[in-house]
Amino acid sequence: MNTQALFAQLLVGLINGSFYALLSLGLAVIFGMLNIINFAHGALYMMGAFCAWFLLNVVGLNYWFALVFVPLIVGCVGMVIERTMLKRLQGLDHLYGLLLTFGLALVIQGVFQNYFGSSGLPYAIPSQLTGGQNLGFMFLPNYRAWVVVFSLIICLATWYGIEKTKLGSYLRAATENPQLVRAFGINVPRMITLTYGFGVALAALAGVLSAPINQVRPLMGADLIIVVFAVVVIGGMGSIMGSIVTGFLLGLLEGLTKYFYPEASNTVVFVVMAIVLLVKPNGLFGRT
């Protein structure tokens, strides 16, 4: 057994798991709070990466500014989408929201592909995070370690904010009994819009983190979104902790599969999803 190659694949899996966790977390927030199946999530992840590229190459703002401003910019785009389109589908079957966001994803991807083409655009690793650490059994690039740690911090902070704070309790109550929440003087439609914007901002943040590792491409979200939906289903639709844990674990499982049986690495997530749906249809962390 080549130990160095094994740990290298586990690192790749952990990095992929970081993106799975962030993206599935945004999907879980949107579905759990708003009951919207947001198929445009991958396109908005891609938009986040392109916004980071634009800020660097046109405006002159580096990676650290992009980490702050890109989630705000794309989050505002998400709020506009919710107010102008998704709001009109309230009370209708989930299928309408899925079809609308799927069509929206195709439009966004088509616009970026028409303007930028299909080839990837490079985005440099920030100078503070170049290089790496020799751990003896493997070489750990600084930027990849940063992605894993920062993603985990954001995921846990989001879980704490939704599950353990007063604001999170209002959000959960607004989905189950909006009339009661309105009685406390809370603007429920505004809360819904902000929640959708926050879920989209998480996707944009993942796009910024991904830009230096995976080149900025119009179809980068389309390549990822199906796997992310599988992660959400396995963890339990709407489960915040389920998305976080499942995202990282499936990333590691993917890395192990690439080492021991590379031919199955692209399908192992879906095999796990099929097994989980047969044994526990609500997902590993889903409510029964």
Structure in words:
- This protein is an all-alpha fold and 288 residues long.
- It has a single domain (3-116, 128-279), classed as Orthogonal Bundle (ABC transporter involved in vitamin B12 uptake, BtuC), CATH 1.10.3470.
- The protein is 72% helix and 2% strand.
- The chain has eleven helices and two strands, in the order H-H-H-H-E-E-H-H-H-H-H-H-H.
- The chain has a two-stranded antiparallel sheet with strand order 1-2.
- Strand 1 (132-134) and strand 2 form a beta hairpin.
- The N and C termini lie far apart (42 Å).
SSE inventory with pairings:
Layout: H1 3-34, H2 41-59, H3 63-84, H4 94-116, E1 132-134, E2 139-141, H5 142-164, H6 166-176, H7 178-183, H8 188-210, H9 222-235, H10 240-260, H11 268-279
Antiparallel strand pairs: 1-2
Please tag this protein with its features.
single chain; 288 residues; mainly alpha; ABC transporter involved in vitamin B12 uptake, BtuC; 72% helix
Coarse shape? globular
Question: What fraction, in percent, of the residue positions are helical?
Answer: over 70%
In the CATH scheme, the class would be Mainly Alpha
What is CATH's topology name?
A: ABC transporter involved in vitamin B12 uptake, BtuC
Give the strand content. under 5%
